[in-house]
Design brief:
The structure holds two protein chains of two kinds.
Chain A: E1 38-43, E2 55-61, E3 64-71, H1 79-83, H2 88-95, H3 103-118, H4 124-152, H5 157-177, E4 186-187, E5 190-191, H6 199-222, H7 225-231, H8 239-245, H9 250-253, H10 261-264, H11 286-310, E6 329-337, E7 340-348, E8 356-360, H12 362-368, H13 370-374, H14 379-389, H15 393-397
Antiparallel strand pairs in A: 1-2, 2-3, 4-5, 6-7, 7-8
Helix pairs in contact in A: 3-4, 4-5, 4-11, 4-14, 5-6, 6-11, 11-14
Chain B: H1 11-28, E1 36-42, E2 45-50, H2 55-65, E3 70-78, E4 113-120, E5 128-135, E6 141-143, H3 152-163, E7 166-168, H4 194-198, H5 221-232
Classes of the chains: A alpha+beta, B alpha/beta.
Amino acid sequence: MTTTDLPQPGELPEIAVDPAAFGHLAGAQVNVELDTGDMVLNIGPQHPATHGTLRLVVRLDGERVVAADPIIGYMHRGYEKLTEYRTYPQITTLINRIDWLSSFANEVPFIAAAEQLMGIEAPPRAQYQRTILTELSRIATFLLFLGEMGLQVGAITPAFYGFRDREYVLNLIEAVTGGRFHPNFNRIGGIKDDLPWGWISECRGVMNKVLTSCDEFDDLVAGNPIFQKRTRSIGIIPQELGAAYGVSGSNLRASGVDWDLRRDGPKYLVYDELDWQVWTHPDGDSFSRYWVRLQETRESARMVLQLLDQMPSGPLMAKVPRIIKVPEGEVFVNTENPLGEMGYYVISKGATGPFRTKIRSASFSNVSILPWMLRGVYVPDIVTILASLYFILGDIDR
Amino acid sequence: MADDAATEVLPSRREEATEALTRLQAELGDAPNGAIVEHADAFGDVVVRVRRDAWREVAQVCKERLGFDYLCFIAGIDWMPTPLVAEEGSGDTSTPAQPKEQTYGVAGSDGRYQLFAIVESTRRKSWRLILKTDLPDDDLHADSWVAVYPGADWHEREAWEMYGFVFDGHPSLRHLYLPSEFEGHPLRKDYPLLAREVKPWPGLVDVEPMPGVAGDDETPAVEASTSDGGETA
């Protein structure tokens, strides 16, 4: 992109929803007495708060944002087109790289879609191991968030704690799959390998460590008055508007919407066999997004402990033909990924590869609400809001 | 497939889907006077194909009357057969061998281009609805959903740049992913994947015929790969 692409102040799009309909922004009008004329500030494409290359063009009046326009696509890799030229087993390699912090969780809905079309079901032990690995990648993703969110508001210590604990979890994932970030471990009909010897007791130890460090984050970050001052009642997402924008996952639950696809969606994996709860927070601000993710990290760790206790024995793969041909049909499978709702709409025409795959990624919709959210906030809060929404650029750009 | 025990859809889900469809039919009515052209089941989900001129009304009914408050996505489909097709059994693994005739998926289609969207309900939990509408080849216009679901903004920009669909009433149809000078609509089937046109598929040399399949002896794959290895070593 050249500088001529930069939207001029007059070209910034009008936001379709009338902010006055949502009372909390009533105080966000531009101060007429101190009106200094607009300034266009370019944040990114490279900025520590953007997890990749997101560019934000914001029009400022003094310290206040008048309009914001996120510019995405710097990492667009054309996965929807590429899936039309690949076979099903090859595609899992691609989709590992959509949300690279929780690659394993990306594979699950795609494999589930292919399995549903083929009429195959993975054996229980494989389902349990898939659930364990999905929850481990959720913990790894959230631990990075819990530390990094502190960093964005100026607290450096939590970042070290976050990275340290995430490393333990990544080591567990690596011990099973051989890959720290891109496991590529799911197969249509099951999972590639069994857990290595001694892994279960090690995993129990790490989960207890994670539970302890969640208490540390509770004290160090969530209970910190400075952190609360920076995040409370900043960046509020109203329930109805969040849902209409397609904001999902912890971001929506932090606005008080009690909706989790692990519990409410069509059955997938073995979440119905576990004892767990969905956490919500009524406030919808940056702090509540932090709080909800903190509780969900705990909940996931408890889930993994239960899964380790209940895991059945048995085969890891269902009977699958050597060359995978998926019968004609269409299916939409969505799952609750760490960042929100991830879904694949797979259209098959009976070949070894899909005819069309629509990838519904969570961050894309989560970030699309930014023009509305950033209107009227102060410049330092932009970073807090970006960090608390928690998106991965690969998940936006696909 | 769908009747297999492994993919048996929970009866409660099927009931919910039927209820969503019945209520939608009560609101919109069937064609020719009503908006619903066809409906079908896809693994427990209802796929409803509606008339194009009712596309926006459908969204309004879904959101305001039926409680589908959550927009999952809006996207396009191009049903044209993939032009670059490997012959089945030729050993060319660069593309999956797709059928050469134009067929349409669940709930059918009148032509090549279709617009489809999924709406869900965060209150009725497991409710979701797949909506489709046909766009004629010579007039790729549809009403924008932005006023109903503000999240439609980016999805419609994506469908505009990837398929060339025009959304009437969208505030600013600009490029979303691609640079603003970009020409063409990449997700249309007749837009080639250039990497495959320019360079032969590197996987080609590794192809070993399946044991016992005709043509087992005419593929020099194994020899070629060993001799290559010898030269470089």
